[in-house]
Specification:
Blueprint (H helix, E strand, L loop, with lengths): L1 E6 L7 H15 L7 E6 L3
Parallel strand pairs: 1-2
């Protein structure tokens, strides 16, 4: 699955928070073994 996440500033998105989001999604929805993609967009894109 691919998730689009809207944020204020892409430069402030730390890789560890992206990994945290991925791990939480895997635990909550059972995405073990499935590639998860994120697309981070700034407001107004």
């Amino acid at each position: 699955p691919k998730f689009v996440i809207f944020i204020n500033d892409k430069e402030l998105m730390h890789f560890s928070y992206q990994r945290y989001l991925e791990n939480q999604l895997r635990q909550s929805f059972g995405f073990e073994g499935t590639p998860i993609r994120f697309e981070f967009k700034e407001k107004g894109e």
